[in-house]
Amino acid sequence: MFAVDTLLVGALAAFIVGLSKTGLPGGALIAIPLFATLVDGRLIPGVSLPILLVADVFAVGLYHRHARWDLLRSLIVGVSIGFAAGVVFFISVGSSARPIEVVIGVIILLMVVLQLWRIGRDTPVKPAPPAIAAGYGTAGGFTTFVANAAGPIMNTYMTGLGLPKDELVGTSALFYCSVNLAKVPIYVALGEWTSGGRFFTGATLAFDAAMIPAILLGVFSGRALFNVISQRAFLLIVLGLSASGAVRLLLS
Hints:
By secondary structure, the chain is mostly helical. It has eleven helices and no strands.
């Protein structure tokens, strides 16, 4: 059994994840600091990944008709390099939870700054050439592998492509579903063959299963709010709360 406060915090984080996947891109940034109040070390990305995957599957189901596979091909090599860097990071820190928390906190703060920079630009971002797209892929691959927090990087990349809103959400959903599925066997292998402990345990998977109703509520709430709520105002709130959560990680 889980404590009531644990379930409430987890449900809030899971709801935000679902909401972000179908209607408010970038909102999931706040969920990682919330998960970090419940677990530490490798369990932070481990407990959040199944929740993200459930939301990804529903997001792809709702928006797959608008996804643009052709725009994701240039990211494959970069994401693979980012994954490799993430593997090296987890092997290097071993069982020490503190470096993981610090790196996740720093990543989230950097993502907040990047998202604020993107929001504050007065001119449209130009489509990225292949070399820049590879850079986005590498940065996104590392941040999603280590902290499940690549949203602002990929939002910046997708926005620069000039996609309509439906295509941006659909393409993002396909990207995240693909990379999150790819992380599962690597996390399992790292947990079994390196020091530092497992990413997934029976307790974390049971917790994730208990979060499914909150995920679905978020998914369909996001779908309903897709064309209603001001995304700019929401993102500013999310960024402020995300930054405070990241600072908490760094100072804890």
